[in-house]
Amino acid sequence: MLPITVAGHLCADVTPALTTSARLEPGRLFEVGPLHFGLGGCVANTARALAGLGAPVAIHAAVGDDELGEVIGRAIDATAGLAGRPQVLPGETTSYSLVLEPPGLDRTFWHHVGANARFDGITVPVGAGLLHVGYPSLLPALLADDAAPLVTLLQRARAAGATTSLDLAVVDGTGPMGRLDWDRILRRVLPLVDVVSPSVDDLQSALGEAIAGDGDDRAGALARWLLDAGAAVAAVSDGDRGVRLLAADERRLRAAGPAFADSALRWAGADLGRPPLPVAITTTNGAGDASSAGLLYAVAAGFGPQAAADLATATAACTLSGTAPTREAVAALAPGLADLLRPAGPVDAVLVPANQPAARFYAGGDRISGFRGLPSAEPNTPEDWVASTVDVRGTAPTGQTRLPGGALLADTIAADAQTWLGREHLERFGVDPKILVKLLDAGQRLPVHAHPHRDFAARHLGSAHGKAEAWYILSPGEVWLGLTRDVEPAELLALVDEQRVDELLVDMHRITVEPGDRVYVPPGVLHAIGQGVLLTEVQEPEDLSILLEWRGFDIDGAAHGHLGLGFPLALQAVERRARSAADIDGLVVRAGSPGDGLPTPADEYFRLERLTVTGASEIPAGFGILIGVDGDLSLAAGGAPAPLAPGSTVLLPACCRSRRLTGAGTALLVRPPAA
After folding, report:
1. 157-201 pLDDT per residue, tens
2. 229 to each of 64, 188, 209, 222, 330, how far by Cα in Å?
3. Which of the ends of the chain has fewer CB neighbours closer than 10 A, N or C?
4. How much helix, strand and coil, in percent to the nearest 5, is found in the chain?
5. Which helix (H) or strand (E) holds 478?
6. 73 vs 75: CA distance, rounded Å
7. What pLDDT sits at residue 482?
8. Is the pLDDT of residue 639 over 70?
9. Could you tell me which residues are beta bridge partners of residue 508?
10. What pLDDT was estimated at residue 658?
11. Strand order across the beta sheet in which 449-450 lies
């Protein structure tokens, strides 16, 4: 997880417990409840919530050289998990807010700016982590000269390689801050801000109520305005309407610093809404800051947008209920987040259920159900995406694996990458599992298609991977692989445009396959899988297919078969040279051949090994996916031995404490390329 610095507004919050009769009336005395004293402002609220969630967090703020400043300093020192101490400004007084929160009403603040008036960001330390700046409307020096000091701070952070974040506060329209040109300021600042997390009230107080429009989706309208003004991610809260989370395109996210280096594609175009969690509300003070903390935790940990929205909602709910948003409190409110907030440490093997995206464009699914021992599948569910950190293209988060607790596997790996992937893997590949495994049931012959090489995918699609793949055959049939003759670009384009499918198939090698055969399909090589074949597929973790055939399938290939590139460009990724019969033989390992792995050229992309067990067999170390094929096997991987039935799919974290198969039978072990 990236280290987080929270800088900006810090004050003391003084909150009397008001009764329904308490009011301002000269000469009257009203009985009120006890006084609560605490830290307030973005720096205190957001940083303490982040520390409670377990994030590495430091603070930077200013206090006066008075007794109140000393009290705040001691309170910061006493907060577990917080690094840093407020800067003491000689001759200044410490900022405080008198928080008036009558029963049943939102809070009102009487605020003294104090030392915050001199906070200009010059002394804020920056590094290659995440910098969150809070409440510039309460930091006058930061907004001097059309926010030039704030711009300078954000530019310094970006130059140091940081991801930047900004939260706003309600602007006092009657004071000096209310007379600033906030539209101009935000349009100047937001291109330097990667994550922005204000409330509807914050934005309307700065920009006017008309900015949100007249519709019910005020938060969505404002989030879109923030993206249009330059931000990469906008999360806008709107009280009992919840939060809206929107993200810009992949290009903007890839410019958003280290927090999105491995997750830009997962965030691109996100548009999510989350209602508040149902809790008994005891206070609204600090709920927005807690929501920002949940969002920032998710961003710093490399989670995707779904987990970020869930975590922002849950941390806000904790605060609303009067509970500090710790890991335990958030997990109690939202059990699906428990795996993401678990402290680093050993993880046992995880049995993952079937994950068959619905309404695919070709038939199949029942053979997967039979292999797994499940009831008949829904029609057109021919693929089971096992251990997937990948979306079905254009339909996030469909396709991604959810663990038994409900968390996405991709987020869980990001939360504790070394535990899941191992140190050596991280050093070479980063937080990228490098593999996607599928069970595939060809209920009809698949169309002729190909997948791009990673160089083509990076250049034309901005993708981190292409798609090499390999198959372990589970039921017999036939496949088509590679061309038998050279084909010129114009001829190939004509075959596709005119859908001359029979000619395509005649020009390809037709291969009979049997259970136990292994077939490697290099990027760019044309292929098709015959009706009735059930197989395990291992591939690079992308959903990138170029369809050369779509007649008779439930897809508009002319519109959707070229990855948005148009066929003249997309077909440049397709191999047009002939492969000899000997070339094709080199891509196939027959069931009875020596060795248990894939053809050697596959090793740079992934590894698949057949484990034949008679008695006991140790499973090699490292992250992997284990699939039961046949026989009577048991797996001991961290816990007590458990049956590994045919069709079972098991995640093996790199740190899994023991890894042993016993019994008699066959299993497959799929792993990333060697680190």
Report:
1. 999 999 999 999 999 888 899 999 999 999 999 999 999 999 999
2. 35, 8, 18, 10, 33
3. C
4. 35, 25, 45
5. strand 477-483
6. 5
7. 98
8. no
9. 483
10. 67
11. 508-513, 477-483, 527-529, 449-450, 546-547
